[in-house]
């Protein structure tokens, strides 16, 4: 069997008392800390004020900080992001919520043409220090309009940072770092992980974050650096590149196949921590890339290209890729679409046979 997951070792230094938190609670704590530390931070979006958000990530923040700093918006994604760009240009630090990542498309012009390019277009006179939070991914029987993983539509755009945490500890630290960043940050939240880690076995009992080391979160201020990947599980046989929910699916696949896989949790998709990826692949000499989004032109294609460019003479087998299928996310056949431990395990076995 391989090494136990290397979870939280490098990140858990003295940041004050720790308490068990779900990812929802960790995200709320991050916004609470940011609102308290910086009067320029504002939080808004559909139902995020009085109601506390559809997933309750902002619950109680309006009561604590008032309606001028945590408030509801009209049902207009373009209006939400456009308003945030203007606020950011004038010196505020807006944190806006798109209720589901599937709904961001009307705001794409504002994200790409305005937020991402404001500094370039103004020759550095203006910037857009804003965060756009979006619950993403499947595994909740949400069907095609509540399950998409659109990360590659942001990593392709110059001027954006794209982040996806896989656990409560990283979620809080990365969100605070994103709010303090002077660049626009797309903050994708795998909603299947909001209340506990999920290894792809949908027919098994749910696991709570209270039973996981990465559910222990400092109560106060701390950051997890952007552009930093984490070695989630050390191994010698093969490097697995994953993020979000797929980190736990890959962990289960390694455990069930007995392959000593080193799992890299990318955390920051772009800009990414290429050095950690390259060091791992050059050590194991094999690589499997896993993501939930559709296959063609997915972010995994970029990862495969980077590994090929940086590690070609070290590779002993072709790079394997496990992804969602090139279809809308199906409601009735969710688990046929979802890249589970069986599919990941088959890829691990194939790459070891080469």
Describe the structure.
This protein has 354 residues and is α/β, with parallel strands linked by helices. It folds into 2 domains: 18-218, Thiamin diphosphate (ThDP)-binding fold, Pyr/PP domains (Rossmann fold, 3-Layer(aba) Sandwich), CATH 3.40.50; 230-353, Rossmann fold (3-Layer(aba) Sandwich), CATH 3.40.50. The chain contains 12 helices and 14 strands. It has helices spanning 23-37, 61-65, 77-89, 108-115, 118-121, 152-155, 168-180, 246-257, 274-284, 299-311, 334-337, 341-353; strands at residues 18-20, 41-45, 70-72, 93-97, 131-136, 161-163, 185-190, 216-218, 230-233, 238-242, 261-265, 268-270, 287-294, 320-324. It has a 7-stranded mixed β-sheet with strand order 3-2-4-5-7-6-12, sandwiched between helices. A 5-stranded mixed β-sheet has the order 9-11-10-13-14, with helices on both faces. Helix 2 links the parallel strand 2 (41-45) and strand 3. Helix 3 (77-89) runs parallel beside helix 4 (108-115) and helix 9 (274-284) crosses helix 10 (299-311). The longest helix is centred in the first third of the chain and has 15 residues, at 23-37. The two termini are 20 Å apart. Residues 1-5 and 8-13 have low confidence and may be disordered.
Question: How is this structure best summarized?
Answer:
By secondary structure, the chain is α/β, with parallel strands linked by helices.
The tally of domains stands at 2
CATH class of the largest domain: Alpha Beta
Low-confidence stretches: 1-5, 8-13
Helix percentage range? 25-40%
The rounded Rg comes to: 20 Å
